[in-house]
Structures are given as C-alpha cells and as structure tokens.
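Listing S7. Sequence submitted for prediction.
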Amino acid sequence: MSYTPDIPSEPHAVCYHAAGKPSEVLRYEPLPAADPQAGEVTVLLEMAVVHPSDLGMIAGTYGRLRPLPAVAGREGVGRVVRVAPDVSHLQIGDRVRMPEDAGVWREVVTTDAATLHPVPNDIPADQACMAFINPPTALLLLNEFAKLNPGDWVIQNAANSAVGESVIQLAHFAGLRTANLVRSPQKTAARLKELGADLVVADDKDALGALNAALSGKKPLLALNSIGGPSAITLIRSLADNGVLVTFGGMTADPIRFPTREFIFKNITCRGFWMDRWARTSAKSSVSEVFGKIYEHIRNATLRLAVDSIWPIADYASALERAAAYGRDGKVLIKGPAAAAS
C-alpha cells in the first residue's frame, strides 16, 4: 500500500505522574520514541478509544494499574512507520494494535514487534480501534459460559452499552434471542431493535413481571450482568433452571444480595469474567483467533460499533469531557497523526 506518514518532530503523549482525577493529573507533554533496535518497530497512532476503564486506571481504582509516570489509554490502532532490519513480518504502513501496556494515547511508540497484533487494513480505523475489548468480551460471554443453540434466550442489563450492543449483534447473527434491560427504553429501544434486539424492557422494579409476560414461559439460559444490585437480581430471577449469570462489570458498585431461593431450587451458577485477565492468560494464537472473528464481523457489517465523536489527541481534554457527557451516541475516539496519512 502507498503510505506516507508525517512523523511529528516532537511527539507528544497524554501522561499522568500521579493517580487522580483525569482533568487534574493528565498532561499533553513531549515523549519521544527511540529508533527501533533489533526486533523492534515504531508505530504511529491512528485511532484510540476512551473507556471508563481508562479513567479508572488514571484514578488508581482499576484492577490493574501502571507504574507511574504512565501514558493513558488502553485500546487503539496505529501504523508501522519504522522497522528494524531483522523484522520481516511487519512492513511500513501495516496496521497493528497499539501496545496496551505502554499506554495508547501517544503519538509514537517504539516497541517489540513480536508482541504486536496485526490488524486488517481493509476495515475502517474507527471500527478497528474498538475491536480488542468490548466486542471480544461480548463474543466470549456468549460462547464460554453456557451451551446455547439457535432460538435460545440470553438476557442482559446495560444493553445499550458498548458490550451490550455487541452482544445483541453477535447473538442475532448466531440465531440467539436477546432480552435487554435498559434505563430508558423510550430513548434506546428503537436503536437496539435495529441492531437485532428481540425484547427491550425498562430496568426497574417492574422489570421481572414485564419479562415474564413478554417471554410467555421462555426462560433465558444465560444472563450477562454489568450493573449489580437489584438489576442483577432481576437477571437471576429470570433465568431458567441451571442457568448461568456472568458478571463482568459493576456500574453501580451496589452489592448483589444472595438470592437463596434461586440458587437452591433452580441451581443457578454465578461466574465472573474480566477481559483483561483472559487476554493475558490465553495463548497469543487464541487471542488472535478471537480478534479475527471480530474483524470478520466488522468487515461483513454483522457488527457495527457506534462512534459518538472523534477528537485530535492534542484536544484530549475535550474528548474526555464528551466521554463523560450524558446521552452520548457511541464511543469517543482520539485520532493521532497516522489518521491523516491512511
């Protein structure tokens, strides 16, 4: 491919030297990248994502923290712009996942070429940059915890989240049916049904009754919880005998009251899932296989990841402000210097 990168003469990154409120501790400061040595390549940022977990990592509350000082950001893609002579599997212009541990909100990084995941050039950058956390989480949630067949029901809360929308689309493709709990169905039901949702219900005190009436005796085999508290209890009580509840988030931080009756009489199983742990403990070939499935879904338009807005990395503060705003329609992205050249 023809690729002419404009490598900044003084590369910058969004850094923090202490944990705290992002608006107070983040700084856009110079951070040069060395020329690649043996086994290394230099990568120029194309597009990155703003996640709640990014903010938790900056604040010092996430499950895994970086040594300080650190560069912010966990997910994004870039283009290879320099290659050491002994590296043959990557070429200038190739797209790769930005190395997560180094921090992603940076214009340039030099890193070990063997650790990088290649990313197809033929899918849009705004979709490629979001392919590594939320969509794989959705795919693994649907495939790793319960034996599901076409026509089976899956129920989830926070269904209009990035993971929730991915679950809807991937389940629809697989012939599964989804019951989706959301805070404001009047605002989100139409979009979710366009994505393939079968049922959208308000996540309130009447949710279980509404689910039972709508499902007419059908019971989900799998429930996906990213909220906690009373919402998780609704999921558990909706499950079929031998059903599985998987918790992968806790948006409200409310504890889940142990529903004794459901556990005893319905033999419900509760599991937990953390994408970060799965990615770090799985073989690179397994991780690449899951990523490959997501790329294929994006390529075939069976998965579309919503984008709210895109901001230059130098305007990261506006990106974070938008990411925190109520009523966003998708993820907030940050673009780097490679976006202009691709």
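Caption to Listing S7: primary sequence and predicted structure tokens for the chain studied. The first helix runs from residue 22 to 25. The mean pLDDT is 94.
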